[in-house]
Records
---
Amino acid sequence: MIGAGRGTLHQIIFSSRAARCLSSDDIWLLCDRSWQRNAAEQVTGLFLCDGARFLCALEGERKVVENTFARIMSDGRHFGVDILSRRDVRHREFDRSPMSCLLFQDHAGVANVLDSVKSSVANLTDIKSRAYFIGFAKFLR
Ligand SMILES: Cc1cc2nc3c(=O)[nH]c(=O)nc-3n(C[C@H](O)[C@H](O)[C@H](O)COP(=O)(O)O)c2cc1C
């Protein structure tokens, strides 16, 4: 469980495209390392990937989120990073875990993914941000 933190809480939501066709193993490795770093730095968020595109959210203390995002921006595994939302938040709006990773590459169990995505974004106050994630999950149906 990750607490509210002391400084200003900042949230960034971005999309990007995979630089090459990533295997499930590649993506789980990426998630695993990211999860560990986020846990150490009290960054919460959500990570969706369909093998070709990413849609991610990061939130935590502003400076930490900025540094994490700078690292992500220079990661050669993706390109075309598009910031969809960047704002300060009063409370953590994502589940209080370092990063929920939802990968749906083979489209199996997409209905379950959609349910998981809906519950992961249920506390988002910005309706557009909620729609980005639900739309991403729905588009695969
Ligand atoms: C789409 C995408 C999302 C990522 N999300 C995170 C994240 O939430 N946290 C994180 O620490 N690294 C994330 N990474 C990985 C970072 O770019 C970087 O590889 C990682 O932080 C390890 O950095 P290091 O090699 O300097 O330790 C992400 C990478 C990609 C391509």
Note: The pocket of flavin mononucleotide is lined by residues 16, 30, 33-34, 37-38, 45, 54, 56, 58, 68, 71-72, 75, 77-78, 99 (CB under 6 Å).
---
Amino acid sequence: MKALVKTKKGIGHIEIRDVPEPQPGPGQVKIKVAACGVCGTDIHVRHDTFPYWPPVILGHELAGTVVARGPDCRYFDEGDRVVAEPHTQACGHCHLCRTGNIQICPEKRSPGWGIDGAMTEYICYPERLLHRIPDTMSWDQAVMVEPTANAVGDLLERTGVVAGDFVVIQGPGPIGLLAAMAARAAGAREVVIIGTPGDVPLRLAKARELGFTQLIDIGCTDPIQAVLELTGGIGADIVVECSGAPKAIPISVDLVRKMGKICVVGLTGGQNVELNWDKLLFKVVTVGFHLSTAYTYWDRTIHLIASGLIPAEKLITHRAGLDDWEQVFDDIENLKALKAVLIP
Ligand SMILES: [Zn+2]
Ligand SMILES: [Zn+2]
């Protein structure tokens, strides 16, 4: 079968290869991949800035149909349409696994970098990591479940956005826009989205298309002044930091109100950030850091997307076959694509 493979360590080294079709082991089902989203992780593996074990098939944001069952499968049947949590090879024994936090087990090796991923025709997967999706859900919607589950879990389950909150999103990439939609679904009274001049043509334009009206381009508007004006001088209840930009992160402290919350989602890529510690303390801010997805985020997210409360599929700007991967990856890097999906 055809697969998109990172062949060895270094920058680049990605090619289409013909690889053997996998067969399901005990507790695994074989899934025919309907679509696989391209994530920032895949781009990082391309540029050698994320850990990976080559040769490895890329892609972890998969949706597909179960076509075969390995020995000892009990929960899924042929024909089931599924999405998959990427927490493969979590050990099951460490204190994180045993307290229900398999997503941050140090042994975890996800598809797409740790083990073979889904940018191919078939993948074999432990059935304990699968979630069934409704018949009414499109593949476009299904493939958005994994990235959306991050935003839903971080904002709704961990930060606790409630109806009436004033929410500011820094960084309008796919996760930032999903966070904006999650906040709106939770009943936020206003969602302000802050971006750079480079975000204006595609990302902020998409935000407008999604119905968000308070969009700030830091090239022409001072975001702190704007948010203070919109909140009568109080500041935002919740600031969601999705930019990962060391210059932008400290602004969160000025945007948030006293006793407010900062929800940290974006990675800086290893850079240090200078923060006014005392200002955080005097504002009595709660800062929460977030990574990956827990079990409970997934079913909630499936319902939110299927019901239309979070129209995550509207972020998809590119659909392409595996052979066109290079153009798609380039377009993401050059901010010409927002969310891209490969269809094997
Ligand atoms: Zn992802
Ligand atoms: Zn573990």
Note: Residues 39, 41, 60-61, 146-147 surround zinc ion (ligand 1) (CB under 6 Å).
